[in-house]
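User: Hey, quick favor. My workstation is busy. Could you predict this chain's structure for me?
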Amino acid sequence: MKVLVGQEYAIGTFNRYKVLERHTVAFLQCNYSTTDYDISRIDFAFIANYELYLRSVPKMGNNAVVKHMKMFRKIVNICWGNGWMNFDPYLNFKGKFKKVDKAILTWAELDLMANKEFASDRLAQVRDTFLFCCFTGLAYSDVQKLEKRQIARGIDGEQWIFTQRTKTNVKLHIPLLPEALQLIDRYKDHPLCESRGLVLPVPSNQKMNDYLKEIAVICGIDQVLTSHVARHTFATTITLQNGVPIESVSKMLGHTNIRTTQIYAKILDTKVSEDMQALKGRLSKRSARKLSAAPSLSRPLLFVRGDRERDGEKE
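Assistant: No problem, here it is.
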């Protein structure tokens, strides 16, 4: 995997498997008092004990455990495929992800953050990077390396981002909203951006997440802010909540499966309310038209839902 980083695998994927390796060694030491274990001896009990270990010792959450067990299964599949194992120890093992609410920011919280004056330039720059991701949907790894040459005129004559996702190598074509253009203009003369041809001066992911926690406290935002919260906010608050079709959102996020977008895109109650109010309006107009066109009846129409019902009759 290491020699294929940058071709078949992202560096983040490689690092996750290194973490898996460390957990596996620790598990072997804890449960079997060794760091080396015969592959052919791995059975269902081994897998079940490993899952229990991840939940009880590192105290991982359910979804983190499921992800680690899926990665470990890939290693087991390699062993199984090479004939080093006599059976599949995962045969009766099941791990299930639990649905979690993705943290997002509201328009009010975005305005609060955008209008906040910070005494430190580093906090202001991290705030601006976060907001840029909110209005473009870019992940941290993509905005960190975004270059000025990747901003060009799109099919509509407006400014677009033309780049490629670091994680999946999927091409991204994203029209730039006015808020994003303002942030780009703010840093066009920044020394780091000028010397490296970058769009924004983005710190390391660890520093950015640390500064975001500080920004949340200063702004009074009751959310654990990370760079990925911005991506969720773009999917929900910025786009879907304002009527952008989920197919377009999926394309801008660089997803290859729309089901992935549905996980990111938390439909807010306000959007559901707006849609149902619009439906009520359409149904009221339809009911009024049927009443005006119907012959005089001794009682009003009871149902207007479908064309199968007859005037004055229940379905």
